[in-house]
Design a protein that fits this description.
Elements: E1 3-4, H1 14-27, E2 36-37, H2 42-55, E3 58-61, H3 65-74, E4 91-94, E5 101-106, E6 110-115, E7 123-125, H4 133-143, E8 148-152, H5 159-169, E9 175-179, H6 199-204, H7 209-217, H8 232-238, H9 253-265, H10 269-280, H11 286-295, H12 305-313, H13 320-326, H14 331-344, H15 350-364, H16 368-380, H17 388-395, H18 397-420
Parallel strand pairs: 1-2, 8-9
Antiparallel strand pairs: 3-4, 4-7, 5-6
Helix pairs in contact: 4-5, 7-9, 10-11, 11-12, 14-15, 14-16, 14-18, 15-17, 16-17
Length: about 425
């Protein structure tokens, strides 16, 4: 059941609500029936409010914030207790017992006790009749027969108020579990400085929903055998709230990237191509499929794929730093021999290319990087790409030869300029 808790109308804009739905859809976390708007249940909330007013467990009070502060100062900082008012425009407060504790039986933290004498009679409705969050949530949880409330421990202070509302309504509360908040690798509360700050940013950065679900599920919880990669079905089967720890979990985007890379490498190539095509806004044709096949082992996120394969679809710009670093120390002679080998290649399959280019290495007794890096820069414009033989094969003979020719011509020109100087 999906409930949008939108009693705060200033914060609960249509745009914010759509962001919630958009995030859940992308994460593939679905729900039964239509989403329920808490604001749309205003009539039911007023009905429950009238019930408490008539029972005498809630009352109208005209006290301002300053009045409450003054009262508490006069009464040794005890919880505020107001005087009922007949003013129909006054806020409504719930009566809190003067003694004893309100006990939250938390599934993770155990019993958490809140002394009633230090708790104010708290406001449950504004003067205009609109109810506040803690009242609306308690009524909705009861009406919807919610069995478990699992949320961040920043909500723990709200729970005794919701329990008091439910007790006043004569309904049994759900079971509560308050999860530790996520922290960054530096141990501080998770924020923008630690990386992506929203589900949408993770999507835009090229993460897979299945990997994000898997990683988030493991924050603060784990299996007895420390299994890391699990399908959503397995997570559902194995998860137990009793195994969630009390310490704050660390959200480390580097670990998420690693896990995402594992998910990407284990995908079926056709499914991988479909996902990449959607991310790039391209057709999942045979050329993209071939490009995906050579990049699948190298990319950890969808965002990393286009920089690896764009040279297959468009003329690449040359990274001048890579050119200066690679195109030296005999590169012209080696690249010229490679050009002749590529021109004469009868087959442009990776295995045959490896054999023909490997002969040049053997003849000159040089390390592979001395030959393959200049070829890589010549055809991709950069020193980072998928495997060189696979890259040549997918690019094709004509285009590969043409790009290496241009690189040889440029090297010859640069070499001549250097000689003349």
């Amino acid at each position: 059941m999906l409930r949008i808790e939108d009693t705060d109308r200033e914060r609960s804009t249509p745009e914010n609500v759509e962001q919630i739905l958009d995030a859940l859809r992308w994460l593939e976390l679905d729900w039964d029936d239509d989403p329920v708007s808490q604001a749309g249940r205003a009539d039911r909330h007023r009905e429950a409010l009238d019930q408490l007013l008539e029972a005498g467990v809630a009352y109208r009070d005209t006290a301002t914030g300053e009045d409450v502060a003054a009262w508490k100062k006069e009464h040794g900082n005890r919880g505020y207790r107001g005087a009922p008012s007949d003013d129909p425009g006054a806020a409504v407060r719930l009566k809190v017992p003067d003694d004893g504790d309100t006990v939250v039986a938390d599934e993770i933290r155990g019993e958490v006790r809140f002394p009633n004498e230090s708790s104010d009679d708290f406001v449950i409705a504004r003067g205009d009749g609109s109810v506040l969050y803690n009242f609306a949530v308690a009524v909705d949880d009861a009406d919807m027969e919610i069995t478990h409330v699992i949320r961040g421990d920043d909500h723990l202070s709200n729970t005794p108020k919701q329990l008091l509302v439910m007790d006043s309504l004569g309904v049994a509360p759900p079971r509560y579990a308050h999860l530790p908040l996520l922290h960054g690798p530096d141990g501080k509360k998770l924020s923008k400085r630690h990386g992506a700050a929203s589900v949408q940013e993770l999507r835009d950065d090229g993460y897979l929903p299945a990997a994000v679900r898997n990683y988030l599920a493991l924050l603060g919880w784990g299996t007895q055998d420390d299994t890391t990669i699990m399908s959503t079905e397995e997570l559902i089967e194995r998860f137990d709230i009793a195994d969630v720890g009390r310490a704050s979990a660390i959200f480390d985007e580097k670990k998420l990237r690693w896990l995402n890379g594992r998910f990407m490498r284990e995908m079926d190539l056709d499914a991988y191509t479909e996902v990449v095509a959607r991310y790039l806004g391209r057709e999942p044709d045979e050329r993209l499929r071939a490009a995906c096949e050579i990049a699948q082992e190298k990319a950890q996120t969808l965002e990393e794929i286009w920089p690896l394969i764009h040279f297959i679809f468009e003329e690449p710009a040359t990274d001048e730093k890579a050119w200066k670093k690679v195109m030296k120390d005999g590169s012209l002679a080696l690249l010229s021999e490679a050009l002749e080998a590529l021109r004469g290649a009868e087959s442009f399959e990776p295995e045959e290319l490896e054999t023909s280019l490997g002969r040049i290495l053997a003849e000159h007794d040089v390390k592979p990087g001395k030959l393959y890096q200049p070829i890589r820069v010549a055809i991709t414009g950069t020193s980072v790409s998928p495997g060189i033989f696979e890259s040549l094969a997918v690019l094709g003979k004509d285009e590969s030869v043409e790009r290496v020719e241009r690189a040889v011509q440029r090297l010859s020109t640069e070499s001549g300029s250097t000689s003349s100087r």
